[in-house]
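for the recovery benchmark. tokens below, seq after
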């Protein structure tokens, strides 16, 4: 059994990004276009917590898919399908979260205040056994 320890630096960086730029945060989509009358550019794209985590980590999105990233060498082989990995799987792994923790943190109904409380609680934890 291994212990997962939350990636406090990345959790705090994502929360800081969301708080400083709420116009580019949409908890209901991994990645979404803000103004659908314009092209999906960095200035016109919003992300949920998991989306911002993978974006800050430098992940590359699969063109035309809002929930898939290009696989990289550090992805577990069982997560990779046709050279891609799911946003939630990558975000959970790089944030050092359990499945339960990531499901709770990535939930679409989370408000800014809920995210703040959840991130603070995760940053205070010693780690969970999985």
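predicted aa per position
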């Amino acid at each position: 059994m291994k212990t997962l320890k939350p990636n406090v630096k990345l959790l705090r960086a994502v929360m800081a990004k969301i708080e400083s730029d709420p116009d580019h945060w949409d908890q209901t989509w991994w990645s979404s276009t803000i103004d659908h009358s314009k092209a999906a550019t960095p200035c016109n794209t919003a992300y949920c917590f998991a989306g911002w985590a993978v974006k800050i980590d430098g992940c590359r999105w699969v063109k035309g898919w809002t929930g898939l990233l290009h696989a990289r060498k550090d992805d577990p082989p069982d997560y990779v399908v046709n050279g891609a990995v799911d946003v939630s799987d990558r975000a959970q792994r790089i944030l050092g979260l359990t499945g339960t923790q990531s499901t709770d943190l990535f939930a679409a109904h989370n408000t800014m205040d809920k995210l703040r409380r959840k991130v603070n609680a995760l940053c205070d934890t010693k780690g969970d056994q999985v």
